[in-house]
Amino acid sequence: MINLPSHRLPDLERWYSMGAPGSAALIEHVLTTEAGRWWVDRVIQPRVIAAECGNHVLLRGDPQALTVKDLAVFAERSIEAPGRFLPLIGAAFDRVVPWQRMVYVRRSPVPATRAPRGVIVRRLTARDARVLATLPHAMSWIHRTCGGPEALARSGYAWAAFQNDRIVALACTYFLGAAYEDVACVTVPDPRLQYLARTASTPCART
Fold this sequence. Notes:
With 207 residues, this protein is α+β, with helices and mostly antiparallel strands. It is 19% helix and 24% strand.
């Protein structure tokens, strides 16, 4: 697969559905933020195209144009592709784990929630990049689609719940689409801090 600069992209409407919720918004997110990469099997009249961002890959086209070695660049990624790619994906990797992703579309206003005593919920700013960088490794996936903690902190699309200057819950725009935003959230594993994911994601969903 060839890494293709965004200014050399073919007509994407031939390959992807624009304006759709969920992972389909990845395409618009990469175009808007330039936080991802584009791959094709060949530069002129590509037969396969893939958009990659934050360990997510949307693969489209003709699987017969690829070999198993071509998919090596997508190892340890979440690959979304039509069913016709499954034999190739299965042959390319030793272990393939199916992932069913449910998408909930907000149709009505989100009721406000109150944070517990001692917890402050606010929008992140560029000054929060350092505390974002100290998140546990298991939570660090949340800023990958923005290009890292500094990019997410200054984006204006992230809200966090703080307790004693420590982030205990974080919600942000994961994929920024023209019609929909895919919102992701993480929380520290503490039973005393229940429902903070909802509390942090409520203002994020209203942005």
